[in-house]
Amino acid sequence: MTSAAPVQSEQAPAGLDAALEVLHRVFGYPTFRGNQADIIAEVVAGRDALVLMPTGGGKSLCYQVPALVRDGVGVVISPLIALMQDQVDALQALGVRAGFLNSTQDAAERQRVERAFLAGELDLLYLAPERLRVESTARLLDRGTIALFAIDEAHCVAQWGHDFRPDYLALSTLHERWPTVPRIALTATATAATRAEIATRLDLTRARHFVASFDRPNISYRIVGKDQPRQQLLSLIRAEHAGDAGIVYCLSRASVEATAEFLNANNIPALPYHAGLDSRVRAANQSRFLREDGLVMVATIAFGMGIDKPDVRFVAHLDLPKSVEGYYQETGRAGRDGLPSTAWLAYGLADVVQQRKMIETSDGDAAHRRRLGSQLNAMLALCETVECRRSQLLGYFGEAGGDCGNCDTCLVPAEAWDGTVPAQKVLSTVFRLDRERGQRFGTGQVVDILLGKQTAKVEQFGHSTLSVFGVGTELRDAEWRGVVRQLLAQGLLSVEGDHGTLGLTDASAEVLYRGRQVRLRREPERTRAPSRSSARRSSVVVDLPEQAVGLFERLRAWRAATAAEQGVPAYVVFHDATLRQIASLNPSDLEGLGQVSGVGENKLAKYGQQILDTLHSG
Ligand code: ADP
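Above: the input record for the complex with adenosine-5'-diphosphate. Below: its predicted structure, written as tokens.
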């Protein structure tokens, strides 16, 4: 991706000593990642920045470190009120003095935070955007010293996006009231149009723009043919993600409920989340998902924004997402900690039929429906590709890339085949039913006709006298359905009405009469776990030696107990990545433990001895 003012320095910029010291001491990390160092240098120097980085890229450090290096309090504006407590808990666990002001607090609590702010006893203050519009809050900020303004989830300023928050529009005036305070806006939203809109609306067009690659190399992308989706999901979890936290997305509330029940009945602890649930139940389920290890959240897309649980090991879709943007955003919630994770989607004919129908019956004008249609087409192209999924996904966001070696089509290449003749057979069956009989039928009947099956329905309608009856015995039932699905995906067939009846499109004639070739994808035999076949355990420990796996499990149990005692999410104590490294290094003393990435000064002092005891208790 290009950026308005590209920054590509590989070397650490000058004047980063203080920032590195904070990185080591507070966060316990050895080095900055990607372009964090450049971004931090920019903000530490008092200049504005616009940061576009994928989920898990490490955006938080980009404002947390400068807030600790610069004089005063870093003010973070975030719309995610429900998550502020966890963010503050995570910082406090690192020994950072953090607080928040939002509508969930009572007056006494608010006053306590305000006093701490004025007394210079805070490093970071989280604010909901609507707070800033209240004059008393602005006056409070006037009386303290502000190190920087961080505008998190900056895409909320984009008026045509899903997450638009009107209060974000007022943030463009921050620099009028506080002209010397640098502003850093951050988002994981990838499209160039949204980025331009953010820059304009927040008046950051002259600021440096830092645009990271949107690749998520640790996520393995897999799209499989849908057969018995819940059973397929269960196999995936049992084979590769036993005991892991994951998110399962379903289209409807009913299927959310049914899937959660199904998983629980099969000993996979799962919770439902959708807009139809009581808000307290929703909040409780979200909180349990964040706090406990190894829970599966089964949800509609209402779930997920800002969820910064780092150890979500898989995101599964049981229904087709409506757009590539949605798919990228939802799958992006896997593996924020950089450890191997899976994005898995089960997709079949019924998905295409259903989505096309939903568009056909959606509100809005023809232009709106066309937009929805082309978004769906891009998603279908991703599902039907025989090329690398990742390069196709990144290509959608304007990034070039070669084969990734970590998606299903790279690991088990799918074949492309010339499906022109089978396509012509399907299309001419649809044509004959329509022209000769004035009838419309769904996929089942069309396939039965091609296979020459004497079903009751075939007899009832006299379809065995059609010239196409029985001309398709070279393919099996499931293969014909695959052909129909791909013709729908390519816009060579259309689907209508409640019964999903098939019809021709303008492009159908090109195949029937003008020699247009049709390339189809042949499913590789049974898409099993391509890379980690033996597993039956969490993907986090798959490549650890046996002894380290035992230590990791002990550490995880210690962490669960510690987190529960403190009422914080497990990852606030330590991330999986840190426990993994501790387990494989098995340090004998505090000094050795302090070398592990993610073990900073505060956590070493607080938990160091307990960890050594846990390691050496066996
Ligand atoms: P984002 O907000 O961009 O989604 P986060 O700020 O939550 O990402 O960071 C993702 C994960 O990466 C977190 O677990 C964070 O602690 C870790 N991380 C960030 N920067 C570094 C770094 N320089 N070294 C090691 N881990 C890092």
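Notes for the reader.
The chain has four domains: 17-211, 219-414, 417-522, 541-616.
Confidence is low (pLDDT under 50) at residues 1-11, 527-535.
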